[in-house]
Amino acid sequence: MTLARLSALTAIAFTALAGAAFAGEVRVTLTGVKAKPGAILGTLQTEEQFMKSQGAYAAMAQPPAADGSVTLVFQNVTPGAYAFAAMHDENGDYQMQREADGQPKEGWAMSKSAGLTAPPTFATVKVDVPATGLTLTEPMIYPTPR
Hints:
- The protein is an alpha+beta fold.
- About 15% of the residues lie in helices and about 40% in strands.
- It has a single domain (about 25-140), classed as Immunoglobulin-like (Sandwich), CATH 2.60.40.
- The strands form two sheets. Strands 2, 3, 5, 6 and 7 form a five-stranded antiparallel β-sheet that branches.
- The model is unreliable at about 1-20 (pLDDT under 50).
């Protein structure tokens, strides 16, 4: 192996390690998850992605066998401001089912949802993720049957 090739491989390895050192894990425990069919889908969104169908990071988990908690894990999250959102996709269509008035038909969760008294904005629900990662606990909110 030549010295130039060894230097190049060393530089690539240090770059990869440096990137990993600045990306953390985000763990979100959802409480109050109902034992219903489907999957729990979660996303971390930047301000530009907020309330759109895309996200910077995604995670999925199966609902519990009995009502309880589920933890979503987002790997290698770059430090920054994100909004967390999740839904209990009961019918597997990857879309929030809504009533005629726009209210959700399926369970949902959002960062800082306990303090929401109006429709969310990025500023009201964002969380700052440091390089070391973040752990959150949020309630899953299910609509009352109509």
